[in-house]
Amino acid sequence: MSNTRRPLVAGNWKMHGSRAENSALLEAMTGQLDKLQAEVLVCPPFVYLAEIAGRLAGSRIAVGAQSLCAESTGAFTGEVSAAMLKDIGCQYVLVGHSERRSLFHEDNELVARKFVAAQSQGLIPVLCVGESLAQRQSEQTFDVIRAQLDAVLALAGIAAFARAIVAYEPVWAIGTGLTATPEQAQAVHAFIRKHLGTQDAQIADGLRILYGGSVKGSNAAELFAMADVDGGLVGGASLKAAEFLQICAAAG
Ligand code: 13P
Prior knowledge:
This protein is α/β, with parallel strands linked by helices. It has helices at 19-29, 46-56, 82-87, 98-103, 108-120, 133-137, 141-156, 182-197, 201-206, 220-224, 241-251; strands spanning 8-12, 39-43, 61-65, 92-95, 124-129, 165-168, 208-212, 231-234.
């Protein structure tokens, strides 16, 4: 972690929760973050967003969506636009989560279009990148991540990264209990910052890069201690208030 970049901890609830469970989770977090410096964000499923954004308006916790449509309006049944997310009070949106990429066939170009769509409405995209186990084992990690970044750079330009977050989520660490070691995470985070820094050192230096993949209360502090790890994107552990609060506290 650096002194200049404000830490951020984001909870990606994925397709979990109910109105009652969400309410209990947020209730348990109320007032517990006041002493922390870290920014805290929750990303509930679409159907709960408006209610939660209303409940958390003006509070210590920001609200983000888990995805969005690349198109702005029209005949796209089942989709949700950036303007709609903005309208109901979202501030952030995940783009290119590995589950979107692998299960819903989102390629680098579509992810780049979603990134641009989000920013067009003033939402802050959290661009998720990461390699699969096979890609890591065949030493393609940096090539994969470079290509994921380059697609966004090509469409949005480096200046767009001044209003974005990047999350490094190795696919092999998501929901598996296998966490990247702090050194593995740091190596990729440093690579991301260096790669973007070749285009604009100041923007790269100010960019917050989160680590995601089996972040827990027990391993958050050692991950967040790394120089280029600016917080976490937390899945399973963000559904348990006490553990999520422990992770937020580890971010400072
Ligand atoms: P887990 O923390 O459950 O591994 O999920 C990580 C993730 O995908 C967050 O977006």
